[in-house]
Amino acid sequence: MQVVASPANTSTTGFGFVSMIDNPMTVGPDIGSKLIGRSQGFYGSADQRELAVLVTMNLVFLEGRYNGSTVALMGRNRIAAGIRETAVVGGTGVFRFATGYATARTQRFNQTSGDAVAEYNLYVLHY
Predict the structure, then answer these.
(1) What dihedral angle (degrees, nearest 10) is formed by the CA atoms of 71, 76, 81, 84?
(2) SS3 content of the chain, % helix, strand, coil (to 5)
(3) 114 pLDDT higher than 70
(4) How do residues 72-82 score in pLDDT, each as one tens digit?
(5) Which residues form a coiled coil (predicted)?
């Protein structure tokens, strides 16, 4: 859900736009995969030269042993890169004091709708 449009309508990167997210987090890339949580946060175009966004995202677990816990991610996401790395900057519940990193890879992208499916792998240290 876009909440702020790019103020520079001549920008090739959409610099300045901001979007909010509240997406399903599933075990696999298929829409029928088991729902285990939600991916909630925002991202905005933060580079005037290439398509890269600043991402702030909470992975909210709603299932299994991590139910009620969150992992917080924040960092630069260079959209065109095959594998992107983002910092784990904290967490709650089971993931209290979390640190580490996440890698993201786009599985599918619909250029018309802007919908995408991304695979995230987390490498997390916590108490």
Answers:
(1) -20
(2) 5, 55, 40
(3) no
(4) 999 998 887 88
(5) none
